Amino acid sequence: MNVHLQRVSPADVDTYVALEKKRAGLKTYHALTDTNEALQQIKDSVNYFILSDTTIVGSISYKVRDVDTAEIDGVLILPDHEGMGYAKAALNLLLKELVPFESIFLMTHPMNPRSIHLYTSVGFTEAGRVENYFGDGEPRLKFVLNR
Question: Which CATH class is domain 3-146?
Answer without folding.
Answer: alpha beta
